[in-house]
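Throughout our pipeline, every protein is held as a single compact record rather than as scattered files. Nothing more is needed to write down the fold, since each code stands for a local backbone conformation. The record that follows is passed on verbatim for readers who wish to inspect the format.
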Amino acid sequence: MKDANLVSTALQLRWPWLQRSEVSKPWTSFHIRFNPQVLALFREACCSVVGDGRSTLFWTDNWIDGRSIESFAPVVFATVGRRTCHRRLVVDALVGSAWIHDISGPLNAQGMAEFLQLADTLVTMALVPGQEDVLRWRWSTSGVYFAKSAFLHFFEDRPTFPPWSQIWRCSAPLKCRI
């Protein structure tokens, strides 16, 4: 039997996927509140391939080698305002190195090391004008969201019960199996 909570979570992941991947649809303008666990799973399962940088969030989306700046430089990320984190796009941040102005507050030694590493990484990034950003689903081979791929990912590391086939392939008559 399938776990109803996991099925529900796999299906709830579809809404943030649709909001980010099909921007021309009417539901993208709706402000839908998502469960924080669903959003965390969505961020883990998606990565952006940056084109022009107009639909990828600079601080929170996974776009630098499949990682977000939040995970790449956590000390630097901690100094950025919450509102800025969820609104700053890659195109806005990279033009004129505007992302540096988002950092408010002092950085310790680890923060400075992260800042310098981030600056070196961002120097090599180039935007491609006219090419839209592509959202990819990590848990499927095609890169497109499927509820089945999310559901199967939940069971990836769980132990299996090999004798299940013997239970369901019983050769007794149907009236005896029930």
Remarks:
- The chain is about 45% helix and 5% strand.
- Strands lie at 46-49, 134-137.
- The longest helix spans residues 109-123.
- The mean pLDDT is 87.
